[in-house]
């Protein structure tokens, strides 16, 4: 139409807000855990998203551990970092593992030169294009329940302001998970964390299925899933289970819409 102007690309409007406003919005978002339809899997992906939006990093991931269990990856900002994180967990070495066990933030510079500390992790991360990593424990008082993993394509430690903000985001994550556990007093934190870990497996299966059927990469497939879940007010994990079961079929990118499967909805 004459005189009309296109809106900003998706995500640009948020990026153009003053940083202090974005920090406040992120903390309010992470505090909103009392809703009846609270989706823990989506919450953890939002944690990673706020890290990406607010900090000078290339990728962010969230690891959690149920009581007495090993750390597991539950949210990642991209598929580039995911195999690096999984390798770190399998190898049992790296800044994230150390931050979890020592309950203290860890900075690590990555280069192609041989390094005595975490050599296998360092080599793997360097091949993925990362030059430094900052790991922040997610703590409930004295109990460490996980780690925020912040990867950078730049060498050196995070700027001091970003270090404080990363600590704040980790603390807000721990407080929100604890509040939700207290609200759902009939369930233990162990069951909540286990549910998040199980949901992650189903989400990964659905992402891989969509990527294979639509001929796209898994990051694009995941964005389609999140857009559909928000549009139809569904839990992300419920949508993933429906995709895997074949009861919901997402239309190809650019198609008119998504349809249910079954006798009255074959597509």
UniProtKB/TrEMBL annotation:
It comes from the Bacteria. This is Transcriptional regulator. The keyword Cytoplasm does not apply. The keyword Kinase applies. Keywords: Kinase, Transcription, Transcription regulation, Transferase. Residues 183-244 form the ANTAR domain. GO terms for molecular function: kinase activity; RNA binding.
